[in-house]
């Protein structure tokens, strides 16, 4: 891929691709722009380019110009050519490797330790803007522990009753009213099982974020909020550095890795799952998890490809399509909000009919 240094000026990029010099980037000119960004990837994905073009301009009779082009350049092109890349290492903790919830004791029979070498490799060879390590970090009375089942009353609608529940069953609690998988006690605060594995490299200036500290809230995703009014710690960290692209790996793929990826996609980040740096609990659920990530706009790659994406500026049309969809949603939401404000203002300033 070409160095993105030539893509810093909105005016210069516009002039380069406005072939007929009419002051508008039409669809064919936008396709040329995308060919330079994504190269051969657009050959079999022209439909993505066409859909992106529709999502990025609001005037159906023309193409990109004026405010549409400024927004396209700042909010879509710039994050593609100058991404802020974050590696998210999910829950590579002792309890998931050789402790109370070791993956080799689950249906998949996976060895969680196998993720450490490839993760260490990309930690050392790739130029990350930030590395975030997440940790399950539960109080003794956490709602997810099978050992704590007796501490809370089940809802009358729970299909599995308290006296018949066994490990890994799903029950429905009364307060809080949630459906919950019953896991073995794991990653308890301050215990050796909650620590990141000693062989995992911890980079200087990296960040560690603990999740699951509220006893009544399951927090598979690092984006889980204790309440809807406050951002999660992860959101604050990523916002501060203006992160654009999240490379996610760790344990377990079909639970915490999956939920972290899906939440990140909802929030508008470009998400890349590093498949060989993950292990999971249930092979069938792993397949479902990967399908869900792809369906929602994520990309799945191998660790050997990460260097090319981050250090060599390889760009993904799939991720760019997801970014365009999210930008379009944001534009529509803002338009609806503005329209509602106008309607409310008029209703408040217009005298009622006698």
From TrEMBL:
Similarity remark: Belongs to the isochorismatase family.
Pfam families (UniProt xref): Isochorismatase (PF00857)
Domain annotation EF-hand: ranges: 5-40
Keywords: Calcium, Hydrolase, Metal-binding, Pyridine nucleotide biosynthesis
UniProt-recorded name of the protein: nicotinamidase
Gene field: LOC107071085
Originating species: Polistes dominula (European paper wasp)
EC number: 3.5.1.19
InterPro entries: EF-hand-dom_pair (IPR011992), EF_Hand_1_Ca_BS (IPR018247), EF_hand_dom (IPR002048), Isochorismatase-like_dom (IPR000868), Isochorismatase-like_sf (IPR036380), Isochorismatase_Nicotinamidase (IPR052347)
Pathway: Cofactor biosynthesis; nicotinate biosynthesis; nicotinate from nicotinamide: step 1/1
């Amino acid at each position: 891929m070409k160095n993105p240094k030539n893509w810093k000026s909105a005016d210069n990029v516009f002039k380069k691709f406005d072939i007929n010099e009419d002051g508008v980037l039409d669809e064919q000119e936008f396709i040329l722009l995308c060919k330079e960004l994504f190269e051969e990837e657009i050959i079999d994905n022209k439909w993505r380019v066409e859909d992106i073009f529709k999502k990025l301009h609001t005037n159906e009779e023309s193409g990109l110009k004026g405010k549409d082009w400024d927004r396209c350049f700042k909010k879509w092109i710039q994050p593609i050519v100058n991404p802020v890349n974050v590696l998210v290492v999910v829950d590579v903790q002792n309890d998931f490797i050789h402790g109370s919830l070791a993956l080799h004791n689950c249906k998949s029979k996976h060895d969680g330790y196998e993720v450490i070498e490839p993760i260490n490799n990309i930690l050392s060879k790739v130029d990350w803007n930030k590395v975030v390590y997440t940790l399950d970090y539960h109080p003794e009375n956490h709602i997810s522990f099978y050992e704590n089942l007796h501490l809370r009353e089940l809802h009358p609608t729970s299909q599995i009753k308290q006296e018949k529940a066994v490990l890994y069953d799903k029950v429905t609690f009364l307060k809080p009213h949630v459906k919950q998988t019953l896991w073995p006690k794991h990653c308890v605060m301050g215990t050796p099982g909650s620590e990141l594995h000693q062989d995992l490299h911890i980079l200087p200036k990296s960040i560690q974020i603990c999740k699951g500290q509220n006893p009544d809230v399951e927090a598979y995703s690092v984006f889980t909020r204790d309440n809807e009014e406050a951002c999660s710690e992860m959101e604050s960290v990523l916002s501060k550095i203006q992160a654009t692209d999240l490379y996610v790996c760790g344990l377990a793929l079909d639970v915490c890795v999956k939920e972290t990826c899906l939440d990140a996609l909802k929030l508008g980040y470009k998400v890349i799952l590093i498949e060989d740096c993950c292990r999971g609990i249930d092979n069938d659920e792993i397949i479902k998890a990967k399908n869900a990530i792809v369906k929602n706009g994520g990309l799945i790659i191998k660790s050997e490809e990460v260097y090319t994406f981050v250090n060599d500026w390889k760009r993904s049309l799939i991720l760019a399509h997801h970014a365009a969809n999210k930008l379009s949603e944001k534009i529509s939401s803002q338009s609806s909000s503005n329209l509602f404000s106008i309607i409310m203002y008029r209703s408040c300033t217009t005298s009622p009919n006698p």
